[in-house]
C-alpha cells in the first residue's frame, strides 16, 4: 500500500487538474452511517421515505424519518481527517474541485470551497410553493413538518429525493470538471447510483488516472479504477497528505 500511496502522490503532484468524487464512505468516520453495506441506512429505513411522490402524499410520515436520519443523526457530526486533507489539497492548489454525493455539508465545514453538491445539501430547506430557502438551523424539528413563514407550505430538505432531478448547476459543473480532469480521486462510494457514478467514468473516458480510496471493492474497482488504495478514508488520506506536503 505505501508504494501505491507514493505513486499516487507523484501522479497528483505532476497533475494539472485533480478532482475528487466522494460518497457516504468518507463521512462514516464522522459517525454518519453509509446507505449500503453492513450498517447501511437502507437496511434499517425504507428508502420510500425519500421517494418524491410518496413524500408529497405523506409529508408528515416522511418527516418523522427524515428528522431521525438526517437531523437527529447528522446534526452533531464533524468533518474527519479525510475531509480536512481534501480541503488542504484545495487550499494548496492540488485539488481543483470536489464533487460530492453527500448532503451532510462536512466538506464545506472542513474548509473546501469548490464543492459541487450533486445531491443537494441537508442544511438547507426549501418551500416547494414559493421556492424560499431556509437554513436547517432555524428549526428545532420538535414540530414537524416545518412550514414556510411566507405561505405556510410544508418545507422539503434541499437534497435530492428519489425521482427528483439533479440540480442543474451541480450536474453541469461536475461533468465539465470531470472532462478537464487528469486525475480523479474517488473516496467512499459504491458507484451504484447514477447519474452520479458517471462523473468518475467521464473522467476516465477523458484520460484521467482514477485513484480509488475504499476498504472494499466497488463497481468502480474493476472497470474504472487504476490505483485502489484499500483502506479507510482518514487513514489513507493522512498517509497521502504526508507524501504530498
Ligand atoms: N472509508 C472509505 N470508504 C468507506 C468507509 C471508510 N471508512 N466505510 C465505508 N466505506 C465505503 C463502503 O465500502 C461503500 O463502498 O463507502 C461506500 C458507501 O456506499 P453507499 O452507502 O452506497 O454510498 P454512496 O456510494 O455515496 O451512495 C450514493 O445513494 O442513497 C443514495 O443519495 C444517496 O448519495 C447517496 C447515493
Can you put this structure into words, describing what you see?
The chain has 245 residues and is an alpha/beta fold. It has 2 domains: 1-32 and 78-119 and 166-245, 3-Layer(aba) Sandwich (Rossmann fold); 33-76 and 121-159, 2-Layer Sandwich (SIR2/SIRT2 'Small Domain'), CATH 3.30.1600. It has helices spanning 2-13, 41-44, 52-57, 59-73, 81-91, 106-110, 168-180, 198-205, 233-244, and strands spanning 18-22, 97-100, 115-117, 120-127, 133-135, 155-159, 183-187, 209-213, 227-229. The radius of gyration is 18 Å and the shape is elongated. The two termini are 18 Å apart. The model has no long low-confidence stretch (mean pLDDT 95). Bound molecules: adenosine-5-diphosphoribose. Residues 23-25, 28-29, 34-37, 40, 101, 119, 188-190, 192-193, 213-216, 218, 232-233 line the site of adenosine-5-diphosphoribose.
Write a short abstract of this structure:
The chain has 245 residues and is α/β, with parallel strands linked by helices.
Amino acid at each position: 500500500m505505501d508504494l501505491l500511496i507514493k505513486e499516487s502522490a507523484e501522479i497528483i503532484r505532476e497533475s494539472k487538474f485533480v478532482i475528487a468524487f466522494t460518497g457516504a464512505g468518507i463521512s462514516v468516520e464522522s459517525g454518519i452511517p453509509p446507505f449500503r453495506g453492513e450498517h447501511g441506512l437502507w437496511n434499517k429505513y425504507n428508502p420510500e421515505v425519500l421517494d418524491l411522490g410518496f413524500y408529497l402524499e405523506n409529508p408528515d410520515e416522511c418527516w418523522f424519518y427524515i428528522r431521525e436520519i438526517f437531523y437527529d443523526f447528522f446534526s452533531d457530526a464533524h468533518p474527519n481527517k479525510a475531509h480536512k486533507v481534501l480541503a488542504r489539497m484545495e487550499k494548496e492548489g492540488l485539488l481543483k474541485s470536489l464533487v460530492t454525493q453527500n448532503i451532510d455539508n462536512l466538506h464545506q465545514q472542513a474548509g473546501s470551497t469548490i464543492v459541487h453538491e450533486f445531491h443537494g445539501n441537508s442544511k438547507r430547506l426549501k418551500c416547494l410553493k414559493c421556492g424560499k430557502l431556509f437554513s436547517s438551523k432555524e428549526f428545532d424539528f420538535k414540530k414537524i413538518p416545518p412550514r414556510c413563514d411566507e405561505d405556510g407550505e410544508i418545507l422539503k430538505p434541499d437534497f435530492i429525493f428519489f425521482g427528483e432531478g439533479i440540480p442543474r448547476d451541480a450536474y453541469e459543473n461536475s461533468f465539465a470538471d470531470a472532462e478537464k480532469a487528469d486525475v480523479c480521486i474517488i473516496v467512499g462510494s459504491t458507484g451504484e447510483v447514477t447519474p452520479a457514478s458517471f462523473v468518475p467514468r467521464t473522467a476516465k473516458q477523458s484520460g484521467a488516472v482514477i485513484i480509488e480510496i475504499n476498504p472494499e471493492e466497488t463497481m468502480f474497482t474493476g472497470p474504472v479504477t487504476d490505483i485502489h488504495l484499500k483502506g479507510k478514508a482518514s487513514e489513507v488520506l493522512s498517509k497521502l497528505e504526508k507524501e504530498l506536503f
